[in-house]
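hiii so um. not sure if this is the right channel but i have a protein structure encoded as tokens and i wanna go backwards to a sequence. like what aa goes where. can anyone help
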């Protein structure tokens, strides 16, 4: 693969880019973040927030400090004032950000669940399909306990291609733009496919992290314009900031987007939001019920409504939602139904729900694959055709895969299908796309949380999910242990 350990690339802004960047304004944001458990252990958190943890919870978490079961070592703890206030009326929201001693009872799981370094040609960039994913920052305004980027956020060390071990680095504009320009030059010269990898033009970039929306407007603008100048056709911003701190989507930020669109009207911009539960968007009364107006419309949290209106009203960009299905948070078909209905009513698009990844301690968060499918399917029974677009996705090494159907009845004459089957459909390959649309059918296993739980009951596998072999850089092709296949949990 095209792998560059480090480059000494430089980047020179164009006059058009400079003119755009000169228009960018900043706002000072007061997220009122409380970081870590120490403020709760030492009673230094704001007085009204101290009750966020009961005495028993403080004791059970404090006793783990510095041990192998330290919850903060696995995933740092962080919350904004806005999210704390939502959590006061919502158990699912509490569960998203509040660590519990139970979460490190079983630390089984992968440090690098996506084996993402396999696709990293430049520090901080993953190149998959015709798309690149970039780590532009290593934190978020608050931290979700189930995040699959915990190795980046907790600054853990990962093994690199050259065998060295180091913390995962962040993308830099000179390195990334140099890689994009060189890749696309070779693709162009070779008639549309890269001469070595056979990949197409790199035309889409996802800004991710961490959460890009914790960066200031100038840094976000600099990424947008540098990517546009490099010929990127479509940019996604993966963010949960709309849930954690919706005021971030304020006038100066929206103005910056407008100036970007005026300067680069040919570039598509897409916000990939991350709402797990309707409690993150809807106002509740003191009894915990959703507030309705006199016509029966559910009322949004005012700041979230404003922020969404700000994005949606720019008709030239799209706003989509994607979220994992997490135990105790949103494995609830009624909640998912309300979330999908409200998000579409506001003008957004329901994109994906994900099965949880096999991150370290994943058993505390993941629901079985078949349960996730049934929950989403049940939620969509109450939705209209325009509200029910979201699919359930699980990411195999080979590529993004849809959990397409789970049947309940035996299939007559098919051995192994006595309890019904699960049908997986490959949506895209990680490197290219020859197998899109191919399916894999396995006999049901209601306890399965990952592909290896079906390894003994594969009935049909034209997608090649169970005989997939990874090819390494040195040309060796070790058989992939099914148990180490990756899954998805977080943003982007
Ligand atoms: S899931 Fe997303 S918002 Fe949550 S901690 Fe991970 S990257 Fe941040």
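sure thing!! here u go:
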């Amino acid at each position: 693969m095209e792998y560059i350990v480090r480059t000494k690339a430089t980047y020179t802004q164009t006059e058009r880019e400079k003119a755009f960047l000169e228009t960018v304004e900043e706002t000072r944001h007061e997220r009122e973040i409380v970081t870590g458990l120490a403020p709760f252990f030492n009673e230094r958190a704001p007085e009204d927030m101290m009750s966020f943890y009961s005495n028993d919870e403080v004791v059970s978490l404090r006793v783990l400090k510095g041990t192998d079961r330290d919850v903060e070592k696995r995933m740092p703890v962080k919350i904004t004032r806005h999210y704390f206030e939502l959590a006061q009326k919502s158990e699912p929201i509490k569960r998203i950000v509040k660590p519990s001693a139970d979460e490190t009872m079983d630390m089984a799981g992968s440090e690098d669940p996506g084996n993402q370094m396999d696709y990293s040609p430049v520090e901080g960039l993953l190149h998959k399909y015709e798309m690149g994913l970039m780590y532009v920052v290593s934190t978020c305004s608050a931290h979700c306990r189930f995040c699959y980027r915990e190795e980046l956020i907790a600054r853990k060390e990962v093994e690199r291609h050259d065998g060295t071990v180091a913390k995962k680095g962040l993308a830099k504009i000179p390195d990334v733009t140099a890689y994009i320009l060189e890749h696309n030059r070779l693709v162009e010269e070779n008639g549309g496919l890269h001469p070595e990898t056979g990949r197409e033009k790199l035309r889409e970039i996802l800004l991710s992290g961490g959460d890009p929306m914790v960066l200031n407007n100038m840094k976000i603008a600099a990424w947008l314009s540098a990517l546009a100048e490099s010929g990127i056709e479509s940019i996604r911003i993966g963010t949960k900031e709309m849930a954690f701190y919706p005021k971030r989507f304020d006038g100066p930020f929206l103005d910056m987007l407008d100036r970007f669109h005026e300067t680069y009207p040919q570039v598509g911009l897409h916000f990939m939001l991350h709402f797990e539960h309707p409690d993150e968007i809807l106002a509740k009364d003191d009894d915990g019920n959703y507030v309705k107006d006199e016509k029966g419309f559910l009322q949004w949290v005012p700041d979230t409504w404003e922020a969404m209106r700000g994005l949606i009203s720019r008709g030239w960009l799209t706003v989509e939602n994607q979220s994992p299905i997490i135990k105790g948070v949103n494995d609830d078909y009624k909640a998912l139904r309300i979330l999908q209905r409200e998000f579409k009513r506001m003008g957004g698009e329901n994109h994906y729900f994900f099965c949880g990844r096999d991150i370290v301690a994943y058993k505390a968060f993941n629901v079985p694959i078949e349960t996730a499918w049934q929950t989403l399917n049940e939620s969509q029974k109450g939705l209209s055709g325009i509200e029910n677009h979201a699919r359930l996705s699980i990411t195999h090494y080979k590529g993004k895969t849809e959990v397409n159907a789970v049947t309940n009845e035996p299939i007559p004459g098919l051995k192994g299908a006595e309890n019904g089957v699960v049908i997986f459909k490959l949506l895209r390959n990680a490197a290219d796309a020859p197998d899109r649309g191919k399916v894999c059918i396995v006999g049901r296993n209601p306890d399965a949380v990952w592909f290896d739980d079906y390894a003994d009951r594969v009935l049909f596998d034209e997608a090649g999910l169970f005989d997939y072999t990874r090819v390494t850089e040195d040309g060796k092709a070790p058989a992939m242990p099914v148990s180490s296949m990756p899954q998805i949990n977080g943003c982007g």
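oh and The longest strand covers residues 317-324.
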